[in-house]
Inverse folding.
């Protein structure tokens, strides 16, 4: 059994495994069924919540990079001054004494004055000593509108006072648990009838569990976070899924050189610059059938993909790349949903957790029929949601029609 980072559980899918609830029973019966994401989550990280709304904090070191809002088209020599505006979330990290470097030209600048723009609080006005280190009379440097600047340290004079303190806070992400209910019933007459296909109640019990897990799987991928009638005694909540929460989204129709096409070289660059930029060096990729074929063709040209059997109950294909290992699984529901056949959903499991309301994980509730009904009715009920601890460690690629 191959290891996957962060996916550690006390059980294994073998004859000695004892499922604690029907969610784990499903993953035991059909590990490669319609809910592979839930199968992996069942063996990975899950925890209860005592409130249907749960929160987590996300924090990351800032890139400390800004964009020129008004271009600097002149630059004489060492110690010439320049005043301009910058935009971007990291603009407030620019304080007097900070060293800025122009990404396009390599010019080094030292900030002498920095304040919020009086007419637009999304801008920071900055005055700098330009061309630090450039000999007097050297070649002038020009920086255009929308060029990028990044902070490269702080320079203090001897005996200077402390710099302006700058800090940053974590952001708060929220999601809700959603109540999933799947009912099934058979009449008492049907229960008493001999059928060559076996007991109808047992058959419906199995099919209902499959449908129930399929519903949860789809919600955890496609769901939108909502709360309706939150101030009443009967609010309705839906859980947010992966596609809604992931911020690294690449559309092959618009984000690459040719519409609907990602070449092998472009995919390699995407792995290095985006998919494996944050998080683990081993990730799960749920793919549609057309993307599976693309990866198979790429694999034939360069290396032999490795079949990994029974990785936490789900069979995957390992693609070893320079950036990291991509463990690929053809998601069965991506075959059923035509718009997902050209898609890849990359998941970093250490930053993903299954959350369920205390005492409300998947269970079978029997005999839900009314007293005067000549039938039996049962239902599967789960109140659960998905928690992304970080969003930048995951990725979503769509409209990948050709290589």
């Amino acid at each position: 059994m191959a290891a996957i980072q962060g996916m550690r559980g006390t059980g294994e899918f073998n004859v000695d495994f004892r499922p604690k609830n029907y969610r784990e029973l499903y993953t035991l019966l059909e590990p490669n069924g319609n809910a592979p994401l839930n199968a992996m989550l069942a063996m990975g990280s899950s925890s209860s919540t005592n409130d249907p709304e749960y929160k987590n904090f996300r924090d990351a070191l800032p890139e400390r990079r800004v964009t020129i809002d008004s271009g600097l088209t002149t630059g004489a020599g060492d110690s010439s001054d320049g005043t301009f505006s910058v935009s971007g979330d990291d603009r407030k990290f620019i304080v007097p004494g900070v060293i800025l470097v122009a990404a396009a030209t390599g010019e080094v600048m030292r900030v002498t004055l920095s304040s919020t723009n009086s007419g637009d609080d999304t801008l920071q006005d900055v005055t700098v000593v330009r061309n630090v280190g450039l000999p007097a009379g050297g070649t002038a440097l020009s920086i255009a509108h929308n060029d990028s600047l990044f902070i490269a340290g702080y320079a203090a004079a001897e005996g200077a006072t402390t710099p302006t303190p700058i800090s940053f806070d974590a952001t708060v992400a929220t999601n809700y648990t959603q109540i999933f209910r799947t009912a099934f019933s058979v009449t008492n007459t049907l229960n008493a009838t001999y059928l060559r296909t076996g007991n109808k109640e047992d058959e419906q019990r199995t099919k209902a569990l499959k449908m129930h897990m399929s519903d949860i799987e789809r919600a955890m991928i496609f769901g939108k976070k909502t709360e309706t009638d939150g101030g009443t005694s009967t609010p309705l909540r839906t859980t947010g899924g992966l596609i809604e929460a992931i911020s690294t989204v690449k559309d092959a129709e618009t984000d690459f050189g040719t519409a609907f096409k990602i070449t092998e070289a472009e995919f390699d660059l995407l792995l290095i610059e985006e998919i494996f930029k944050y998080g683990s060096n081993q990730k799960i990729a749920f793919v549609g059938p057309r993307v599976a074929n693309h990866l198979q063709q790429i694999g034939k040209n360069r290396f032999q993909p490795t079949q990994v059997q029974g990785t936490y109950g789900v069979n995957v294909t390992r693609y070893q790349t320079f950036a990291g290992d991509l463990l690929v699984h053809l998601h069965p529901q991506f075959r059923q949903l035509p718009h997902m056949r050209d898609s890849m959903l990359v998941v970093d499991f250490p930053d993903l957790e299954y959350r369920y309301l205390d005492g409300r994980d998947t269970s079978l509730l029997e005999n839900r029929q009314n007293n005067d009904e000549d039938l039996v009715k049962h239902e599967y009920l789960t109140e659960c949601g998905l928690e992304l601890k970080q969003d930048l460690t995951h990725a979503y690629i769509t409209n990948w029609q050709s290589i």
